[in-house]
Amino acid sequence: MQITLTKPDDWHIHLREGETLNRTVYDAARQFNRVMVMPNLVNPITSVDKAIAYKKQILATLDKLIEQHPEEAQNLAHFTPLMTLYLTHDLAPSELELAKASGIIHGIKLYPMGATTLSDKGISDIKKLAPIFGRMQELGLVLQLHGEVTHPDVDIFDKEKVFIETELAYLTQTFPHLKIVLEHITTEEAVAFVLNAPKHIGATITAHHLLINRNDMFHKGIRPHHYCLPIAKRKHHQEKLLWAATSGNPKFFLGTDSAPHAQHKKENACGCAGIYSANDALAYYAMAFDKVGKLSLLPDFATRFGAQFYGLPVSETPLVALLKQTNLIPESLPLTQQDEVVPFMAGQTLTWCTQ
């Protein structure tokens, strides 16, 4: 069995920086036409100038990869990084004007302070940014949300639900025309919110949240490579996400949230949050969609809906073929010259692969 689709887009990915780009850009470029690059670097992307410099680093890495893999040159050459800005309390409204005019900035990312990897420069009080949100609404800029509260007294499995009830409710009521993407949703409450919201509010869904639930993190011991933020929830939430992704509703679209960490940083006393899925992202999604008999809806979810939400042309790059055959995921992959990364479902056999 085979399915072909126009080379899709990933609307939420972490490429990181430096030597790590050799791994992340190669894996992403093999499968995706465009990727929405997250800005939470060690030196976060807080200005248009920084975004321009970061994009140049990514494209310079791509050029090297094309030289190293001439047999894949035509496929890799179509790759386009779409840039974002890291929202801080110091962001000036004038930077929003520059972002809108730049042509390369496609979203402003809000991390609640301390919510996830490299979010220490994030937002401590959403209401203090009302002037920023108002100007974003006027300019038509997209707000990309990591939707979790960080209050220590809120259970980790309820952080997304509480964020929706408090912070997101405030945003949508106060700025009713602000375009919002609720990133990497994990709960039935998030699905319900997006379904009932106006059409300018959408959500990305990861492959790993479609394929695992919180039981998988503790199967025969602690599984650090299944640990991500937002954390995987109960099975009924997983099933609701799978329903949303395969519903054909254009509010839901592909965003891997692929986030590499060196193996030793995951497998330690305080392991990092993040799942690396860029190595075989489309196969993971195909397996999830096939599981519920909705494979025919994957092309829209992967290729059309995200582009339409962001107001960009739908991808017309060469077709990608997905084959239904065994696909053994490696136990690890080179991340840098010194480090390995353990990919999602390492050592397991998938039922789909890309040709």
What does this structure look like?
The protein is of the alpha/beta class and 355 residues long. The protein has a single domain, classed as Metal-dependent hydrolases (TIM Barrel), CATH 3.20.20.140. It has twelve helices and 15 strands. The protein has helices spanning 21-31, 48-68, 73-76, 93-102, 130-139, 159-174, 188-196, 207-211, 235-245, 263-266, 281-291, 298-310; strands at residues 2-6, 10-13, 34-37, 80-86, 105-110, 142-145, 179-182, 201-205, 252-254, 319-323, 327-328, 333-334, 340-341, 349-350, 353-354. The strands form four sheets. It has an eight-stranded parallel sheet. A three-stranded antiparallel sheet has the order 1-10-15, covered by helices on one side. Helix 1 (21-31) packs across helix 2 and helix 4 runs parallel beside helix 5 (130-139). It is globular, with a radius of gyration of 19 Å. The two termini are 12 Å apart. The model has no long low-confidence stretch (mean pLDDT 96).
What's the structural blueprint in terms of helices and strands?
Elements lengths: L1 E5 L3 E4 L7 H11 L2 E4 L10 H21 L4 H4 L3 E7 L6 H10 L2 E6 L19 H10 L2 E4 L13 H16 L4 E4 L5 H9 L4 E5 L1 H5 L23 H11 L6 E3 L8 H4 L14 H11 L6 H13 L8 E5 L3 E2 L4 E2 L5 E2 L7 E2 L2 E2 L1
Parallel strand pairs: 2-3, 3-4, 4-5, 5-6, 6-7, 7-8, 8-9
Antiparallel strand pairs: 1-10, 10-15, 11-14, 12-13
CATH architecture: Alpha-Beta Barrel
State the low-pLDDT regions, or none.
none
- Beta strands, count: 15
Mean pLDDT: 96
- Compressed to H and E, one letter per element, the order equals EEHEHHEHEHEHEHEHHEHHHEEEEEE
Helix content: 25-40%
Per DSSP, the total helix count is 12
Beta content = 15-25%
Which structural class fits the helix and strand makeup?
alpha/beta
| CATH fold node name | TIM Barrel
Span between termini:
12 Å
What would CATH call the class?
Alpha Beta
Q: What's the CATH H-level homologous superfamily?
A: Metal-dependent hydrolases
Shape: globular
Rg, Å, rounded: 19 Å
Going across the biggest sheet, name each strand in turn. Answer: 2-3-4-5-6-7-8-9
Overall number of domains? 1
Major sheet: size, sense and barrel closure? 8 strands, parallel
